[in-house]
Amino acid sequence: MLAKNPILLRSDLFDGVNQVTVEELAAAAQFQTFAPDERIVAEGQPAAFVYRVMNGFVRLSKSESGGREADICVCEPGDTFGEYLLSGGGAYAYSAWSADGAEVALFELSDLRTLADQYPVMHRNGMRIMTRHLLGAMDCIAGDRLHTATQRVANYLVSRCPASASHVTFRLPYRKRILAGKLGLAPEALSRAFAALVPAGVEVRGRTVLVGSVDLLRKAC
Amino acid sequence: MLAKNPILLRSDLFDGVNQVTVEELAAAAQFQTFAPDERIVAEGQPAAFVYRVMNGFVRLSKSESGGREADICVCEPGDTFGEYLLSGGGAYAYSAWSADGAEVALFELSDLRTLADQYPVMHRNGMRIMTRHLLGAMDCIAGDRLHTATQRVANYLVSRCPASASHVTFRLPYRKRILAGKLGLAPEALSRAFAALVPAGVEVRGRTVLVGSVDLLRKAC
DNA sequence: ATCGCTTCTTGATCTGCATCAAGGAACAGC
DNA sequence: GCTGTTCCTTGATGCAGATCAAGAAGCGAT
């Protein structure tokens, strides 16, 4: 159970809540570890927990009758998902899958609701988290509708570059298949987008990305 | 100023707040009326108000550098927008436009924040509203990514039919151009989708829609 | 290193929708 | 009713990206 408390206590959800209470809650939290591509929660199932990603990445997806599924979000360490359940609702609105493997903390929904009644600040915290998620979702909709695949990829790469740097090298945090899903693309389309960005100074070798000129890349958005 | 208090007091945002306080707030609220396609708020501008649609419809949209814009939501009477500002943030994340004309109520953000500190239940209410918006946005993303134009239109029509009815006639609540935007389509694509749904028993004359068999239409989703 | 598996890339094809352009229907004002 | 305007539809074309199929590259295990 690596580094349990340090990350846990910094959770946005518990800001302003009595330290002792948080520690109690942390003690009550369950932890689970998942291999790559394992299902963490199933869309439509009765919801009992709010999750927090401790390690690795978690893909949230919705699926249609035909079985195809679309990712709606990729959660990073520190992210919360299922927090919308705090305000009611009894079922998960999406499935959650571990990306390349993930460790998550589970908080009993009933515990959290009790705690939230006791510490109203938790509702404020919940709003703050949901604000982030909502703005992200709206950006996603607008991005899908306004930008081409290449533009969305360029945008993603720029978002991973420090604002001030002129050229950057970094590793993708997860498999390209996952990134493609996050951007609403088939894996092939992501490859082609990378290829299309070569003239913009982007070089991709495995999971390593070299951005020759952030400014140039920014123009490709 | 038609029917000011009745709708206002039922606002999700003020559930559980002292009746007298709500009435004070209602008195302090400004009202504005807009002609079709007028701008109500501008993306990126400093935010000072949370809005509530009293009448008509309001389109929320984001735009890209090139000037093209995409609708991310259409708000109906009773809907709140800009509520995410309660938890911080200082600028509007989207533009808002009146659809076929709209009347909105404006609540000063600073007033609301003060009130929310006094009545923590408002944060819970805010969460409830944002939950609705967030789930809607996620449905939208998944819908865009998984369904064709025809399926999305079929889906919209079904959502406007009472669950139990077998055949239904109703009027579209706004111009088709607006509906197309809401569904992420060009107006032409909406027309073609309607045409494609004729075999599913859908007939469209002007703003009037006849659904011959809701069950049949449901299969087209 | 070599093997074997997974992940990624590239090419070919096809579909869905945007876009452009023009004709037709609805509707408000007179 | 007519007339002008707005809104919608239909047709033709083009492009972006999905999908299918096969080959290449990366990577962990031995």
The number of strands of chain A is: 9
What percent of residues of chain A are in strands? 25-35%
Shape of chain A: globular
Q: What does the oligomeric state look like here?
A: homodimer
Order of helices and strands of chain A: HHEEEEEEHHHEHHEEH
**Sheet having the most strands of chain A:** 6 strands, antiparallel
SS summary, helix count of chain A: 8
Let me know the average pLDDT of chain A: 90
Amount of helix of chain A: 25-40%
Report the C-alpha radius of gyration of chain A, rounded.
19 Å
Q: Which parts of chain A are unreliable, with pLDDT below 50 for 5 consecutive residues or more?
A: 1-5
Describe the fold and architecture.
The structure is a homodimer of 221-residue chains. The first copy, chain A, has helices spanning 4-9, 19-28, 109-118, 121-146, 149-159, 176-182, 187-196, 214-219; strands at residues 30-34, 39-41, 49-63, 69-75, 80-81, 95-108, 168-171, 202-205, 208-211. Chain A is an alpha+beta fold and 221 residues long. In chain A, the strands form two sheets. In chain A, strands 1, 2, 3, 4, 5 and 6 form a six-stranded antiparallel beta sheet that branches. In chain A, strands 7-9-8 form a three-stranded antiparallel beta sheet, with no helix packed on it. In chain A, α5 packs across α7 and α6 packs across α7. Chain A starts with a helix and ends with a helix. The first copy, chain A, binds a DNA duplex (30 and 30 nucleotides) through residues 148-149, 175-177, 185-192, 194-195, 206-207.
